[in-house]
């Protein structure tokens, strides 16, 4: 990290679990209890809106009191000090921006932003939680601005993440199972060294130059003190 002139970070849900946000595929993850196809696809939004709304309302209520942990703040400090250039994240929680990271590419959107699927107007969190219709077009189509299975990724975030990872001399991949396509292809683009920081070994030996098996917060604290 001291030698690299271009370090980029790529994070997944494991970055946020120590802020008490469950991941999807970890041992206490959502997908151990719920079938993703029933709640997080564009089809479920159209065919089963009440179940869709209930799932996202539960997640939004859980997010109400969460805060970034020390690891998020270390990454924000790394950006300020020029130690990292940017973060590309699969997370929808907004915790990297709450911690202070500015060069942030949210590849799967942000759950705290509410929009209308029909007319694209911005809605309020309260209206979504209360099950209200869109205040502009009056249709019952409010939803969080997250990328559902079966939807396109936001082009701007994708292009920026793609370019920055491609140019990275060092890529830190933190807390992701690398199972979600197409974002799981991004680490392969780096022309530099790729390091995994994850609490379980993903295998995939040929994709990484180094693996640090441990929790994101503790590993980042150690890195911070070593730097
Ligand atoms: P995932 O659930 O598929 O994988 C998370 C990985 O992180 C697992 O390998 C797990 O063992 C590891 N992990 C868990 N806690 C960790 C910790 N403290 N330190 C290090 N590693 C830890 O998550 P994913 O790969 O990001 O893909 C899931 C998708 O779900 C993403 O598209 C994302 O949008 C969405 N998601 C986001 C959030 C969030 O915003 N926090 C939460 C759940 C799911």
Produce a short descriptive summary.
With 227 residues, the chain is an alpha/beta fold. The chain folds into two domains: 1-21 and 68-108 and 153-227, TPP-binding domain (Rossmann fold, 3-Layer(aba) Sandwich); 26-65 and 109-146, SIR2/SIRT2 'Small Domain'. The chain contains eight helices and nine strands.
Q: Can you tell me about this structure?
A:
This protein has 227 residues and is of the alpha/beta class. The protein has two domains: 1-21 and 68-108 and 153-227, Rossmann fold, CATH 3.40.50; 26-65 and 109-146, SIR2/SIRT2 'Small Domain', CATH 3.30.1600.10. It is built from eight helices and nine strands. The chain has helices at residues 36-39, 42-47, 49-63, 70-80, 95-99, 125-129, 155-167, 216-226, and strands at 7-11, 86-89, 104-106, 109-116, 122-123, 142-146, 170-174, 193-198, 210-213. A six-stranded parallel beta sheet has the order 3-2-1-7-8-9, covered by helices on one side. β2, α5 (95-99) and β3 form a beta-alpha-beta unit. α4 (70-80) packs parallel to α8 (216-226). It is elongated, with a radius of gyration of 18 Å. Residues 12-14, 16-18, 21, 23-26, 29, 90-93, 108, 175-177, 179-180, 198-200, 215-216 line the site of nicotinamide-adenine-dinucleotide (NAD).
